[in-house]
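User: I want to check something. If I give you two sequences, will you return the structure for each one separately, not as a complex?

Assistant: Yes, each is folded on its own. Here is the first sequence with its structure:
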Amino acid sequence: MRRYLFLISSVVLSAAVLGTAQQAQPSQPAPANQQPSVTFRAETNFVEVHAIVTDRKTGAFAGDLTQADFEVYEDGRLQSPTVFALVNVPIERPFVPARAAAPIEPDVRATTRNFDGRIYILLLDDLHTYVTRTNNVREIAKRFIDEYLGVNDLAAVVFTSGRQEWGQELTGNRQFLKAAIDRLQGLKLPSAGQERLAIHLRESGFDSANADETGQGNRSVEGLQRAQSVRDPNDEQRAFNARRAFDAVENVSRWLADVQGRRKALLLFSEGFDYDIYQPFWISRNSDLIITEAREAIAAAQRANVNVYGIDPRGMSQFPEMIEISGRSDYPQLEYGNFRGALRELLLAQESLISLSEETGGLAIVNSGDLAGGLGRIVLDNSRYYLLGYYSDSSKWSRNRFLNIEVKLKRPGLDVRARKGYLPPDTRATARASEADVKAGTSPALRAALSKPVPIGELPIRAFAGPLRSADNKGQLLVSVEIDGAGLKYQERNGRFVEALEVSIVAADERARVQGGDRQTFNLNLLPDTRARVDRSGVRLISQVLLPPGRYQIRIGAQEATGGAVGTLPYDIEVPDYAKTPFSMSGLFLTSSAAAGVPTGSTETDWNGLLPAPPVATRTFAPAETVTWFAEVYDNSSDQTHSINYTSTIQDARDGRVIVQARDSRAVERRGQGHGFTTDYPLRDLKPGMYLLRVEAVATMGNHAARREVLFEVK
């Protein structure tokens, strides 16, 4: 069965397009103890290798190596790494308030530094998951999110069936990730052997219940030949599903291609690709197409340094299932409809997972009774490793020729695991693609930054977005973007400090279609004293984006003109259907008595009259501040007169004690009314620490309720 690995990896791979074509000058080696940040490189000849080194006896990670302990060879030629670092990313668990069952999703997203977490792509292979195992895959994937996704990590959910609206872009929002996982529905076809057996039994008129006691039945040479010639009725669809799955691996790899400085883990939850690629050519011509797709998927992953982790969710449970054969044939020579045939299909499917994993530097978790332990090992793989980067001699490249990478250790008693090589890109096509991209944007730097899959933290920014009902009874977002004043560079002109800021907001729905956005500029012309205050406070921009109901990822980017620094972040949010939902609540908007001291630019927005100052994108306040919050409740439940009872509660997040509670109510006289509630509270009596603000609204008719929760810190 290891022929699958041989067929996929030993033939010359086909080329694809990534990066730009230029010979780059080697950079100075990075200090070994310096934690590398995520980078976006344009040099196509820069090659990054992630080496996982373990003790051969204990299996423990060896974290005390230096660059002198490594030798990296490309096609047998010793390379000289210009980048070397030990990557040791801590697993930061989210804070869980006292008496809470789960972490509270933060309503403020921040990029205060370059992204330093892990990157996970959960590729849910619905095309190769039986419908009866759907819940099992859901639980395993959600367990990974709950137990292993760190605070600074990003994850995405992708389906091999290509159902983009079901998936989730890269985010740290656990609720959105688990909601995407819950949309999984297994679509795997019945076993090819079972299908062939059913046809054979039907055509022969043979039923196992009618077999004679000797088990001889009605055997004949002609009958055996007819049985052996039975074709899988789903052969074309089975081949198409395998090709789509390999396409998904390739597309994800291309998407992550220019992200460097971190391992990129693709967790492939799959029962394996069950198409028999060893069928003779005259029986099926799909085998060659599938092998080609597999090569291209592996090539894309190797080139992008994406590590595939094949996870068979069945664990050890598949063996009892193979023994339960519902029917049997008169011909023991057949390789389908019996235990031998079922075992062959199982091994064939698992070989696809093993091949993808081994060829890309990952590992396969198959036939495992400890899936949780396997998930933990994946996290360790992506938390501790050595980063070695070198510039390959592109003059020795030839199109469509795979370049082997071998990592050797000088210290005995250690094992190393790294990717096995890569296929150089087609640099001419890449240059054309890059040129077209530059010409397309009115603000090229910010446009390019917003297209990157992970946040950029050159310019520290924070953002809050909250949904509101718009004047036409639809939806809108009120967005507050705050830019760190210390990140502004300025130009000095005639005793003043001049700076220009550009902020861009793009809202894409679950199908990645842009549904709205905004672009603003903010010009600063400051005296020295004013600049000093802005350095401490930063600046703020308020934006209003009209959006139809639905799920969105808001890409927010900012650039300062003097130094060209850029900051981007993703913000995932759902805009409710305020016209149809019986009872709903807007976002929870916070401001403070210090908010008016931050220079604020805005388009025409709805915060005026709702709050005494602009909504803030910070959740850390000083004891001297007074915090004010606003929420609006929309009641479409009944035309009968009733009331809405509204409660605001502040709890100590460390022990659950209620610090203060305020109540209010509104009379509802007709369906569709909006009712705003504003509350303020001085923080002077609160000790430094974390607190939970909860607002709840309950209708006295129909038992409808809505709630919002926000964590904040007094410091």
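And separately, the second sequence with its own structure:
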Amino acid sequence: MPSQRQLAAIMFTDIEGYTSLMQQDEVEAVLIRTRHRTAFEITTEAYNGKIIQYFGDGTLSVFKSTMEAVECAIELQKAFSEEPKIPVRIGIHVGDIIQSQDDIIGDAVNVASRVESLGVAGSILISDKVNDQLRNKNSIKTQFIDAVEFKNVNRVIPIFAIINGNLVVPKKEDLLGKTKPKDFEEYKKYRKKSLYVLGVLSVIILGLVYFMMHNIDDNHIKEATLAVLPFANMNNDDQPDIFADGITEDIITHLSKIQNLQVISRASAMHYKNSKKTLQEIAKELDVNYILEGSVRVNNNQVRINANLVDAANNKNLWADNYDNPLIEIFKIQSNVSRDIASALQITLSEGEVLRIDNEPTKNAEAYTAFKEAQMYFHRGGGKVEELKKAENLFKKAIEYDPEFCRAYVGVAETYMEYIFWGRESPKKMLELASTPALTALAINANDGGTFGALGAISYYKYEKETAIRYLKKAIELNPSYVGAYNKLAWIYAFEGNIELMEKNFNQVLKLDPLSTKYIGDMGQAYYYLNEFQKGIDLMNKSLIKFPNDNMLKWIKASNLSGLGRYEEAIEILASRSVASNTNWLLGYCYGMIGAFDKAKAILEYQLNKNKLVYVPAYMIATIYIGLDDRENAIKYLEKDYEFGGQGLFFWGLKQDVKFKSLHNDPRFIALLNRVP
């Protein structure tokens, strides 16, 4: 059998304490292993799995279906919990494998093995990828345990436990497998180092800005477009990169405040962490002229930061410096930096820009530490409630350490906005919660772009168009590379029917964050609301070449196909997604529109039952009802959605949304539209 590459759910099992038992009682150990293998063989076959390997007291198997792998694991633990009990731990991951006749290899196998090693007897642990595929499966309950770094695995992996029935759920401190030191435990060691960053960043920015604004070659001045690549962690130990990544993000944040400089967003820049691509290749992909790269080395109370500015077209080093200082001199360093900035930046920067760049967000090391960890969870959340909750709590912890920490208040408000964007909580509830920290941030610092961006987002979701535009434009004035502000403005212009301004703002979004599928998808859905369905489809087709497995891009393409009445094609794409492939509300609508009423009703029932347990935007349920031509219930749920605060995206576009065209002459629908500005 030739080797084949495929996507699979990989399960490892292991009998805890087997070696010790073997030493104490060989007969008993053999009996336990025999019973373990018998149960394993019968159950694996029942759930369509394939046994790859037995090794001592453990097993390796693969499944084509993640759901079947998890159900098999649950059934196995039920069998092993019967007397006499067998203390087995189980770990599951999903990913690409290369399978031969009697073996499998691949990074995903390595991850699955390490997930299993974290467990305790009676537990089933899964990776974040498995958890993503279980998100809409009501029969399977999961609980976030911790985010860990495994040895020889180049990313932090959130770990979840299956909590059905009497399964054992390990505590965070019980995760003792093949891991590197925990992020936060290591990061706490850097508390004093964190404040040093705030001082040294200004020095880096001084040199960089001076060059960018005073290009020596007057005959060949280039547009000041810059990407800051993730700074390399030059420590020789296993310390995580969170400190180096924090420096990268802070440099981007500071540089984004400069009016005549366009800086690629953090999200796109981090795609090139540990990249083997040349600087020319990266610059071409990001469409920038300059690259800033650097490195960080930490040794006891000494930090060395190297920064290097490169003209990407000819790979010419234009500016470089290094900063090697003891941590205890942080305030002296900041004082010296301020004097350097005062003499140099007056030539190139406005007084307001000098003030913003020179502003220290906090002088409290603990606050800064909590804030940086909060940002880590916020950025990788992707709509996962457990990640958003961690970010929210850590931002609040930063505020406890420093009640004057403006950016931490903005972080809390932005986290509440994420709950709305992903449909995880009632918008009305989240808007009420977000307003207080956003206004507090404004009271602390009225010269912060992030504050006005948060206030603009709140006004956007409240349908306060003019106020939202005013706040968002102020955010861009203070922070010209503020991606989120351009994004919200683009949506407002889309709902006004102004395709020119919509495209102008979205093009700026994608110039600053070209690798964000979230924003690419947003532009595609904006085309939907402008009835420019083919433009949306063309954009998605182009983007899916680069990101072929992205679920959001697939959903947006299906949305635009539905706008053209090409429901069968939309159904095919929705069914190909790796999440909610059989339960998505848009799929239910499309089934209804082709007359597959049983399938549409099954999805409707699923969403109604789900809504009894967690928040489901009523708009989504209304959409399925309109697909079934149940206009009465469609209007009923649209009215419910408005009562819960609605979602600006859906309600501002309700008038243009072709899905609800059949309601345009209904007095109740007209009355509802009149309530939306």
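Because they were folded independently, the notes below concern the second chain alone. Confidence is low (pLDDT under 50) at residues 181-190, 216-221, 327-347. The CA atoms of residues 236 and 297 lie 9 Å apart.
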